[in-house]
Amino acid sequence: MPSSANTAPTSSRALHHPDRDEIRLEGVLHALADPMRLRVVRALAGSSTELACGDIELAISKSTSTHHYRVLREAGVISQCYRGTAKMNSLRRADLDALFPGLLDCVLRAAARAPSPNS
Amino acid sequence: MPSSANTAPTSSRALHHPDRDEIRLEGVLHALADPMRLRVVRALAGSSTELACGDIELAISKSTSTHHYRVLREAGVISQCYRGTAKMNSLRRADLDALFPGLLDCVLRAAARAPSPNS
Stretch A92-106: mean pLDDT, rounded? Predict the structure, then answer.
């Protein structure tokens, strides 16, 4: 169970995140257009705290998982930071809602209704 | 100007379209995740009639244009049919709205607000 009381210091290892004004609709849609990445986004949307990659079960290889998280981060959908050895993830909901009002919620609702290709 | 009075018979050349229950959220998002395809969708959404490919200015090669229309059709975003020598296009709005309520409108609004990479 992730804890909001995690006070481990953020590592200085930098991960690039686009600024809000660099986030593009097409990039966000592309990032969301994958069942694994949608699963990550749904898990983060349903969590009140940031989640480690290991908290979200994807049943894919570590390298493929890392790729999917990177696509989400580089599109501006999630933010990632190191805390100790764990890479923690959270949705950039405020940025997405400001740029594309309603879009994230529409996609989350559609994903909740749609049959998952893995279910 | 396209005309709704176009009564040319539909060609028998068949173009595959997924049934409504074959349309997948991930496929729709992927189809929308491209500035050229978004431009097509916005043009069709803003038209009360079906549009020929030539009615929508994309400034790209014919083969690339054909590819983009095919991605949209195969994802279930648009329907296409031949009328004489013209391939006519329309949005599958009823199908998309039934499957993913609000999603198309959210994307269209976001696209209208977002700066186009070509503008």
Answer: 95
What's the per-residue H, E or C state across A60-80? CCHHHHHHHHHHHHHHCCEEE
The yes-or-no verdict on residue B93 having pLDDT over 90 is yes
- Report the CATH architecture of A20-113: Orthogonal Bundle (1.10)
What single string gives the DSSP state of each residue in B4-63? Answer: TT--PPBPS-------GGG--HHHHHHHHSSHHHHHHHHHHHT-SS-EEGGGS---S-HH
A contact test, residue of B21, B28, B106, B116 with most A CBs within 10 A: B106
Local structure of residue B116 (DSSP, 8 states): P
Whether residues A110 and B101 touch (CB distance < 8 A) is answered with yes
Domain assignments of chain B as residue spans, ordered by start: 20-113
Query: Which among A24, A102, A111 has CB closest to B25?
Result: A111
C-alpha pair distances (Å), A83 with each of A16, A50, A87, A89, A97: 16, 11, 6, 10, 26
State yes or no: pLDDT of B116 exceeds 70.
no
| A71-89: average pLDDT | 94
Is the Cβ of B81 closer than 8 Å to some Cβ of chain A?
no
Answer whether A112 touches B (CB < 8 Å). no
pLDDT at A5 over 60: no
Tell me what the mean pLDDT of segment B53-67 comes to: 90
Assess B111–A contact: CB distance below 8 Å, yes or no: yes
Q: Which residue has the higher pLDDT, B96 or A10?
A: B96
